[in-house]
User: Fold these one by one.
Assistant:
Number 1:
Amino acid sequence: DARVTQTPRHKVTEMGQEVTMRCQPILGHNTVFWYRQTMMQGLELLAYFRNRAPLDDSGMPKDRFSAEMPDATLATLKIQPSEPRDSAVYFCASGFDRGRGTEAFFGQGTRLTVV
Amino acid sequence: GDSVTQMEGPVTLSEEAFLTINCTYTATGYPSLFWYVQYPGEGLQLLLKATKADDKGSNKGFEATYRKETTSFHLEKGSVQVSDSAVYFCALRDDKIIFGKGTRLHILP
């Protein structure tokens, strides 16, 4: 049963610490999305990759956030330094672009709490 | 830019009631449209999709029709169950996927 795997599922950290969230996309998928979910803002797109190249990271605070795909089986989202306002659930999703209509499959999310 | 607007929640219904959750979109291109569902503590799951005008997506008794003339993709179900209680997201994809804010649905037994 293919699925997107995110680690860790939960993370509590102190303000100022570095946080790294990891995502293993479904094998064979060529697009990866990172979203942040909060009660106030809903689902915000942070970054979007196709064939490991970043296509859009306009939703990501550049001074502290970074997203990379070191290889096709791993995507990372880093926050350095973390702040309490970064507390949220972070979702990774992957899909295979074959023209219009391709959906994304979501992982279970990483619930981040910054204290 | 592209955007999705869906009705504010929460929506509370009794079991076996008829459900409609409204969704309208704004897009510069010709997007595909989706409904996702999120159960507590889980990620989003694709519920149904439509890729062109007048297409009807359907799954688990839910339906939505791509209406280009009204830029809408309303979600309907004829008889809801307690197990349908969740948060429902309307979304579009032209390039990246844009989501609405979600509608929380409560079904009372």
Number 2:
Amino acid sequence: QKEVEQDPGPLSVPEGAIVSLNCTYSNSAFQYFMWYRQYSRKGPELLMYTYSSGNKEDGRFTAQVDKSSKYISLFIRDSQPSDSATYLCAMSARGDYKLSFGAGTTVTVRA
Amino acid sequence: GAVVSQHPSRVICKSGTSVKIECRSLDFQATTMFWYRQFPKQSLMLMATSNEGSKATYEQGVEKDKFLINHASLTLSTLTVTSAHPEDSSFYICSAHSGGAGMYEQYFGPGTRLTVT
């Protein structure tokens, strides 16, 4: 079993829809959670960084962490075609700066 | 803020030659830099962790003598692929970490596409 599980999709939604992405993890030591967006042939771009259970909002993006269930989510509101990309969840434990990544979910937002 | 650059963005080299890739943190000091390799439609695979002024720590299965990493300053790390072969063709991405207390996020460079002919 992988430490971080993420459905690779692909996920296709119409423009304006809410995109819902999630990851589960098995290592209870993970305390820091990130979501990255990666366009084709580019490096990942940090979207959200959280370390507390609960919600964190930044513009159209909301990151949700449930440490008791070992489950994190990313919601994208009012999705745009420019949101079409691969979204990677990543996490690390306290004192360990290495990241454990999910497989990435490929999202297409249809105009 | 938190910009990381990589150079070159793409390189084609002949089998048996060496290639050097540079990773720079442009607006912050990176105590730790990471080197990843990514195959098509796959997630990132960590190759090594480098701390400024010390030897890199390589992940299991990564050849130290083939992938030479130097982190000579707080803003520059280099990856040299020695005696490259076609199977080394891949997308190489670096990331940088500022090392601030409680700050675990990494900032990634744009990647370098290496093709070995």
Number 3:
Amino acid sequence: DQQVKQNSPSLSVQEGRISILNCDYTNSMFDYFLWYKKYPAEGPTFLISISSIKDKNEDGRFTVFLNKSAKHLSLHIVPSQPGDSAVYFCAASAPGERDDKIIFGKGTRLHILP
Amino acid sequence: DAGITQSPRHKVTETGTPVTLRCHQTENHRYMYWYRQDPGHGLRLIHYSYGVKDTDKGEVSDGYSVSRSKTEDFLLTLESATSSQTSVYFCAISRQGGKNSPLHFGNGTRLTVT
């Protein structure tokens, strides 16, 4: 049972345009959501996050939108740049006994086309 | 890479042999984690640690054990490697755990079990 779903394995976007990466979740206990970015041969790096009490969080070119009723979040990158080509992981966090439990999606590979 | 060193970076081993992967951090973070990344599965938690000699199992812990005798080192051991354990292994650290302390990942160890 996949609790965090990234249904698009890959996405190609023209440089300068908007990239929209989507993520769906099933567990209502998730109260915090994160996006990580990963380049080949490197570890994932934290990109942006959002609490379940908000519906939008913005950081420069990156904006994450949360629709709790639809259990859906999306990451918008505007404008897309060549360095944005990477794999993006959506992650969701739920309270645990001693530490929050973080579940990752399978990732979406973003290709920025020149 | 937030002061995280994983060793070795690459390893090829035979089925049935024991393997130990090392994660060393210089950040003095309390929480440490081992993840594996596989195509079609994203990142899955193997084991984690809240501090010295304080560890717990993640979602895919079968066939793995861990030890943490010092704050800076977290070892992952495959007692008897199997081909299904061929994967890329990532160590991650977190200052205080929880949703407000994003994970910082090392650059991974690519393990091939033949």
Number 4:
Amino acid sequence: AQSVTQLDSQVPVFEEAPVELRCNYSSSVSVYLFWYVQYPNQGLQLLLKYLSGSTLVESINGFEAEFNKSQTSFHLRKPSVHISDTAEYFCAVSQTGANNLFFGTGTRLTVIP
Amino acid sequence: KAGVTQTPRYLIKTRGQQVTLSCSPISGHRSVSWYQQTPGQGLQFLFEYFSETQRNKGNFPGRFSGRQFSNSRSEMNVSTLELGDSALYLCASSWGTENQPQHFGDGTRLSIL
């Protein structure tokens, strides 16, 4: 069975400061990893994904995440946050051969002006 | 290209009633998955449909059911509603091949009185 742990439920950070949102997973099989973002009263938007290949993946809006197999982690980072990054971020995994996602409990990122 | 459309956006029901939620996937997507989001349990997978067949199922009681039509549109039904069924129900679509990113709708917020 898969599980995802997001240790930080809330992360406040000042505008233009760097941020790291932590995600650890456990699985007995190979997994694929995703980060989704949810704005108020909206669904989830895919931020970035790791399927295979380079362990460092990047999104178009400056976020990046690194897959670390030995530490079973997929932390999300951004070197300089904006007010518009305020949202809830979910880490998710799916196992090979399946389409359903297992989500972490989410991290609420609040960017302070 | 239109995104995933869920109707209705908001719904209020009373205990014991039943409800049907609708989801229209992105054009060409053949897989539709349903998730329940609550503050206490987070995001949980309900089931996935692919080519009108249930391909995967989460750990929910039989009161929760779904179906998919030949045009890939999907409906989810919940019978004998309970207070604990109050949640945001999210639908996600994908091409259906292994581990393709899922694209989410804005959800239907169901409130049980």
